[in-house]
Design a protein that fits this description.
The structure holds two protein chains of two kinds. Chain A is α+β, with helices and mostly antiparallel strands. Chain A contains 15 helices and ten strands. In chain A, a hairpin with a 6-residue loop joins strand 4 and strand 5. Classes of the chains: A alpha+beta, B alpha/beta. At the A-B interface, helix 3, strand 8 and helix 7 of A face helix 2 of B.
Chain lengths: 372, 236
């Protein structure tokens, strides 16, 4: 109805005038509910393996939505999963080409492809036009690392585990990251949901397409990702987000890994956690670490008891990482040092007859050993 | 005994931020039979699935308040896995003292948040789920203001669900904040609702406290009867 006619009708008693003035029909429920009731896109899709065999992925096969793709169960072989790029990548030829190049670089790393602890791409899958749109990977299972982030969780999900058991998990994680680093593959996102633990303490790494991957040829650039979880991220990246556009450095990875290792050993306490402290990310940025023993840092509940049973070497390493290395990345200890200190701690726990040495929550502070 | 271990209902050795959740469940006489049976099954499934998730089970702390004859705490605030181990007994009888239940929920929520603060534990926005199949028969107006205000300020996720054709949506609209407002349960789809609630709480507890408002909640089509939710009086 044009505006002139509306004005005329508004001045008359014509029945249509009432229609014009009437409030629009309100929906029966708030817009919030209507927004939540929108039908999700249909995820049924047909893809093809390298031999052009058709693989039908039904919407009921959708297992998860990752940051970059949709993960499907593989009905024909439950040991594998298929990840397909999200629609915005599929619609953009430039993004799809970048995905293909990155996938090829990952497929070229044989040792990673053969490592059973990685959900690494095993082979590409194609659309009907022979474009690479996803990949097949191993299915991994286990509890996420968060299951170690509180004593009550360890008791529930891993009955009978002690500090020795969780330290072995930390060591397995360091070994996994070190193996990847040997191939210049860097783990960018230390989100605990990306690490799965089985009942034997083995660690599996998922979301491998968030890793930084070296280019396949000599002239190829490194494949970067911007994925990160702030609580586990080196402070220089948080202060200078433009650094995410550059290659991550081994020092940044060492810092993030050490945060995770510390949290495993300390039942989920963050290295910069303070009693009454604010957001972990703000604490991390501030660099105030209880290990520094400076004034103004209120120790978290139970912190001193748990720390006192760590070996002096491990404590010193954490101080170098989180205190000295907070602003000076080059002071951060090497992965091999972290590995050695964890092995040493495991050995001390194995030999000790004091139950507090292996307890997830020690009952007493360890007294200083007498030296002669 | 460890002097810092689980000496209170609040486990201070768990460093995860907490997400306090109160289920306010109508167990008045009209809920007896199939509705109560479906509600119980839905609640059991919710407790089991939320407890089994490593992330949600660290954060979600649950209290169940029932109102049927009296308003009472059927399960006091505790980690969701503890409630799963000792699930509340639900029996339907009596009238619908919703005002009393709201007053109880309000005071329990305040006390829990004070406890978090005193122990230096951060927390997510609380979730209050109100489920009723009738209209209140006590003074609910004075009780409702405090939590409604928190909901309007988006400091509380306040969800009200009407069950069946007798649910009084006009009163629910006055009790609840404008957003998201009440919605009708599709048939007796309690299980579908509790599945949605589990998924929502998993997503919230996997986010950081600062980013919780950016969490996109799942689709509600399986349990929400949008077309069947009565229109507000002034919009008729």
């Amino acid at each position: 109805m044009n505006s002139f006619l509306s004005q005329i009708l508004a001045m008359t008693s014509h029945p249509a005038a009432r229609v014009v003035r009437r409030k629009p029909q309100a929906p029966p429920v708030g817009t919030d509910w209507l927004a939540l009731a929108k039908s999700p896109p249909d995820r049924t899709r047909t893809v093809y393996d390298p031999t052009a065999t058709e693989l039908v992925l039904k919407k009921t096969d959708v297992l998860a939505h990752g940051g970059e793709g949709v993960i499907y169960r593989f009905a024909k072989n439950p040991a594998f999963l298929i990840k397909v790029c999200k629609d915005d990548t599929l619609r953009d030829a430039r993004k799809l080409a970048a995905f293909r190049d990155r996938l090829n670089a990952m497929l070229a790393l044989d040792e990673c492809r053969n490592a059973t602890f990685l959900a690494w791409p095993l082979m590409p899958v194609f659309d009907g036009d022979k474009h690479v749109i996803g990949f097949v990977m191993r299915k991994t299972s286990g509890r996420t690392l968060r299951a170690l982030y509180a004593p009550c969780q360890v008791r529930r999900f891993f009955p009978g585990w002690d500090r020795l058991s969780v330290t072995k998990v930390a060591l397995n994680l360091v070994n996994a990251v070190q193996m990847l680093a040997r191939h210049r593959v860097l783990v960018n996102d230390f989100n605990p949901d990306n690490f799965l633990i089985d009942p034997f303490g083995q660690v599996r790494l998922i979301d491998c397409d968030s890793f930084q991957i070296p280019g396949a040829g000599e002239n190829q650039n490194t494949f970067l990702t911007r994925t990160f979880t702030p609580e586990y991220t080196a402070p220089e990246l948080l202060f200078h987000p433009e650094l995410f556009n550059r290659e991550r450095t081994p020092e940044q990875v060492r810092f993030s890994l050490a945060v995770v290792v510390y949290m495993i050993l300390m039942s989920g306490l963050h290295p910069y956690a303070q009693c009454g402290g604010s957001d972990p990310v703000e604490n991390l940025k501030s660099g105030k670490c209880p290990l520094a023993r400076r004034d103004g840092v209120r120790l978290p509940v139970g912190w001193y008891k748990s720390v006192s049973w760590l070996t002096p070497g491990l404590k010193h390493l954490f101080i170098r990482m989180f205190v000295d290395g907070h602003h000076e990345p080059l002071k951060r200890p090497m992965l091999s040092e972290l590995k050695n200190e964890l092995e040493n701690f495991i050995e001390v726990m194995r030999k000790s007859k004091n139950k507090n040495q292996r307890a997830i929550l020690p009952e007493k502070v360890k007294r200083k050993e007498k030296t002669t | 005994m460890n002097d810092y271990a689980e000496e209170t209902a609040l486990d201070v050795t768990n460093p995860a931020p907490r997400c306090p959740v109160i289920l306010m469940l109508d167990v008045s006489g009209s809920m007896s039979g199939a509705p109560l049976r479906e509600l119980k099954e839905g609640l059991t499934q919710f407790l089991r699935e939320t407890s089994d998730d490593e992330t949600a089970s660290m954060s979600v702390e649950l209290e169940v308040i029932t109102f049927g004859g009296n308003a009472e705490i059927a399960a006091p605030f505790a980690p969701v896995n503890v409630v799963n181990d000792n699930p509340p007994e639900l029996d339907a009888n009596g009238s619908t003292p919703l005002g009393e239940a709201i007053r109880l929920a309000d005071s329990e929520l305040k006390a829990r948040r004070r406890l978090y603060k005193s122990k230096g534990i951060s927390s997510y926005k609380p979730w209050i789920i109100l489920m009723t199949d009738g209209c209140p028969n006590d003074d609910w107006k004075s009780a409702a203001a405090s939590m409604k205000q928190l909901g309007e300020e988006k400091r509380l996720q306040y969800i009200g669900i009407g069950i069946g054709d007798e649910a009084d949506f006009d009163t629910l609209r006055e009790i609840l904040p404008e957003h998201p407002g009440p919605v009708k349960l599709k048939g007796l789809c309690f299980k579908e609702f509790f599945k949605w609630l589990t998924d929502s709480l998993k997503s919230v507890s996997a986010s950081s406290v600062a980013q919780q408002d950016a969490v996109v909640l799942g689709n509600v089509n399986s349990w929400a009867d949008l077309a069947g939710t009565p229109v507000a009086e002034e919009e008729k």
